[in-house]
Amino acid sequence: MSRRKFIKTSALGLGGILLAKCASGTDNETIIEEEKKVIPITKPIVVSTWNHGMDANKAAWEILGNGGNALDAVEAGVRVTESDADNRSVGLGGLPDREGKVTLDACIMNHENECGAVAFLQDIEHPISVARKVMEDTPHIMLVGEGAYDFAISKGFEHKNLLTPEAEAEWRKWKDSEDQKKPRINSENHDTIGMLAMDEAGNISGSCTTSGWAYKLHGRVGDSPIIGAGLFIDNEIGGACATGMGEAVIRIAGSATVVELMRQGKTPNEACKEAVDRIIKKHKNLKDLQVGFLAINKNGEVGGHSVYAGFNYAQKDNNTDQMKDVAYEMEW
Ligand code: ASP
Prior knowledge:
alpha+beta, 16 strands, binds aspartic acid
């Protein structure tokens, strides 16, 4: 009696996909034929969330394109966004909480699962670089609030007021408005920046930085500095980051979930869609609940998905330098 089996094995860590075809002659005899199909890997490559990702990618590419490593690239890239005073959702110029304080969340993760984070940090322009110092110079992973600030100062970071006159004016207007009781999320076409990069050596790192949900309660921390929620990297598989309503992302351990789904064989697009579907399933009220995921695998394949329309990302590699829209589940 003959029997046919088809086994599909993902060997992403080897830089290709191995398809093994097994055909057996009799029950006692197995003839195995293997055919190796090599998929070219896109690297180096950098992707990041929203329109502000274009400028951030440019800075990251100066490192990646010259043979530099992904960790340096994802730090340098998002620093551009952190310093952009016209951006209302990250670093300098970010919209404050309801007390008028700009409080920042950020994290960074490398190809060896080393990571660092800061949360509820004030008056420091580059939380991503403080997060990297936490990763490299301390035995800890996350510092928050005053402790994070004191640590930053001890490492030579300068105190800087991040509330620009423009952001302050917007906050004052909000304070006097009907909207006062409703914190606002994702109302502009740019929010948190999450960045994922793979360098020439095939190593993946990621970064994520934000001023969070505009007009949030003082002390609120979102998903962006939470490893596994706003960002997760597993260099054997790939990486993922999130933007949108952090509370929803935390509830499903969003970025870790996307990476685990890729480990099970899903493409980046499929993994991001399944995480979005899970968010939709777990929340009764989906009004204004925007979340977007962005992911990359070891082949340099990129994907994304969001709850509502409008989420996009910037991609840069040797052949690409452009914005891409992702598929979504609902119209606003
Ligand atoms: N995820 C961020 C937060 O919840 C905000 C955003 O990306 O829109 O703080």
